[in-house]
């Protein structure tokens, strides 16, 4: 079985719920506190590919940084959006569970069960 990883923010209730759900199902994932250890550009790009979404779909649009960095600007390339998320990991939607070549955002937490 391949390793299961969760990009986790312990202050986020959905992230805590998703981690608890994994543990209740007998899974002890690698926990990456992504605010402390942000993914690299290449890692985040790979995660986005596994999620099957665009980089913009991973942005937390309610964060102050979203507004101050003008991320609503449609002229920004995908790579520019990814670079911004790496520099400002608070902008990355959470939690993200990664299993092999698949990933899922834990909103709702139960949605991650699809890839296990």
Can you walk me through this structure?
The structure is a single chain. The chain has 116 residues and is an alpha+beta fold. It has a 4-stranded mixed β-sheet with strand order 2-1-3-4, with helices on both faces. The model has no long low-confidence stretch (mean pLDDT 96).
Write a concise keyword list for the protein shown above.
alpha+beta; 116 residues; four-stranded mixed sheet
Shape: globular
CATH class: Alpha Beta
* Structural domain count: 1
Rounded mean pLDDT is 96
Task: Examine the coordinates and then state which fold CATH places here, giving the name of the CATH topology.
Answer: Glutaredoxin
Q: What fraction of the residues are assigned to beta strands by DSSP? A: 5-15%
- CATH homologous superfamily? Glutaredoxin
Class per helix and strand makeup: alpha+beta
Give the helix tally.
4
Helix fraction bin: 25-40%
The CA-CA distance between the termini, in Å, is 10 Å
Poorly predicted parts: none
Q: From the 3D coordinates, which CATH architecture would you assign?
A: 3-Layer(aba) Sandwich
Strand order across the biggest sheet? 2-1-3-4
The main pleated sheet reads as:
4 strands, mixed
Number of strands: 4
Instruction: Tell me the radius of gyration.
Output: 14 Å
Question: Element order, helices and strands?
Answer: EHEHHHEE
Tell me briefly what this model is.
With 116 residues, the protein is of the alpha+beta class.
